[in-house]
Design goal:
9 helices, elongated, 2 domains
Length: 279
Amino acid sequence: MRRMFAIVVLSTGLTAAATTADAYVSYGQDLRFVADTSATNSSGNGTIALCHLVDYASIFFIPVYTAVDSYVLSSDGCTGEDYSELTADNFATLQLAGMIPADVPPVAKAELKDIIAGNALLILGALALFFKLLIAVIRRDGRPSRKAKAPDALAIHSLVAMSQVAVADGKIDAKEIHQIAQILTRLTGRGYDADQISELLNRLNPSSADLEHVGQDLSEKDRQIVLEAALNIAVADGEIHPNEYAVVSDLAQQLRIGADQFRSAMARISTHLQTVQPA
């Protein structure tokens, strides 16, 4: 009876994980193994595996984003593209029957590496970072500069994110400073030149510790701009180095960027890269 129930669930309809790709970006859905079940497949020569159905995106074949969508069942160990959808009721029935390990959580979700206790600490930390950076920028001989407006919160958060992506594979050089100025100007709509960026970096002296505050108190739209700025720097030289990928991947999770928003950012970056490619 247990085996027949699993076969019925698996045969309710197979779906193929879809993938989209172009010269720079690929994204879609994939299967990730969670656990073996005790049920055999319809042919009786293998077991049915429990998988996560995930949304993913990659740049130049390097994954930069994954988000768990749901549980599914696979007869090929989650290595292929075909899967059967698994409803919450069917999951509960299979687990109650002992066919799914008892330690598998009922809701499909990725494990969180870092859990920060208390919203008050996050708010205070974000405000402290904001005022520290803002005061450092506008303070020059005891009064604000008349030559340039102080950057707003979006520019500061974007600059911190881009600087840490840039230093992930070494020091920030003059070319990267110029690229940061161009990206910040294009995404925020405010003019920044290389000299301003150099001065801001010298005054702010951002470090990896500041990344945990990036995106705090920003709107959803501004958080997406921050991630897009970091992604632009990551792909500026035509490839993403492992250290850069680690920074961008953690940043995407921290900024709570959904799969659809992430894909939109990818598409805009791809379009921009194609536009600026030499003929």
